[in-house]
């Protein structure tokens, strides 16, 4: 995924997950028996829901008005019951549970909810998720337990968006947060770990695991080694790195389905990758099934678009296959002629480009190498290069990159920022600077439409537009592979989004109970 989404939800399915850290952070020595250590692939930018931390309901520190069950259904959290919605769909009213408190003992009231959303919408706070809540016109707190949202238009996914964590009014603490969730913040050692302890007065019941340590270890092999050595109680690994841990008596490996994809994004304004024929030919050259079989060891499926075929929003017409001969004909017709060195050229320009991937991500590295090998067979020279996320972000306007995104929720999620021209060039939002008025129109219509059937038609058309433009060459949808030491009751796999670290399977860790 992108550093931005990785780091601001870092973890999107849970807490929120992200993208950088030291190569071998040190976890606590001899942690007590009631401490559970999770090895994460990336460190958070901040711990503020207002600034984008874990907006999708996976945070263990914060609660939203609503939360998600593993099957993706929405249920009340801080809200006493589902909201009431006006007939025209523009007024949504929530009633809070009685007796809610923050970790510091102060009451949580509707004023805190009002403040959280108003702070998020304040342009001065520069929240990375502000556009996701642009349907909100105003927020009111007529009494201590009532919150009323006024919407600019009937926004179908609005109730799903209220999984956003609530913060105390007047605070936007980034590094020492106070929430109301099942775990309270203890400490953050940058580049190393975050420590959380159970909220024994949690309205949903005190967690059985008393202490959590979120240890940052971006290198896949380091995490595999540390979980094998007993330094980590759980982590998420690429399928190959987890292979040697399967079948061990002291561990359980969970293969969790996801809408998380890996894809190659192209800079749309460069001479080679800006040529639609090159992009389409590249996509036809890719052997996605071989990537699934070898690189993912079967833990995934080929990808041809941004919406998983395992969701009801997927357009079955958006599919594809491997056809190097057709790819070659496309390039021939577009004037890219084969040179004596096996690389095509046009108007004195070689058909070549750089393909970036995060250096510590072994899975993306292998995908980049496989894609480069496939491309060479049709006369494209692709040079893979491993960089840190800061270097990748600085070069997105001129080099291709292996990116990761994907959401199992409403198709408005993620896609609006990735493909709408208003976001082109804004870091990891629309990194290829895609600009198509038809895609913009469909995204805007999908966001505002009220009827389910109409929205399904709109997003089906949207998927065809971005497929035809080959904005990305989609590679694979992943299964997230979790490795957990010991045995626990209450582990319920669901469907992951892109982020997973302390999210996804870990989102319900406050309900786990050790099996004696």
TrEMBL record:
Q: Where in the cell is it found?
A: Cell membrane
Q: Which residues form the signal peptide?
A: 1-23
Q: Name one Pfam family in it.
A: SBP_bac_5
- Keywords noted in UniProt: Signal, Transport
Query: Start and end of every Solute-binding protein family domain?
Result: 73-422
What membrane topology term does the record carry? Lipid-anchor
Name where it mostly resides: membrane
What family does this chain come from, according to its entry? Belongs to the bacterial solute-binding protein 5 family.
Name the UniProt record assigns to this protein: ABC transporter substrate-binding protein
Source species? Streptosporangium amethystogenes subsp. fukuiense
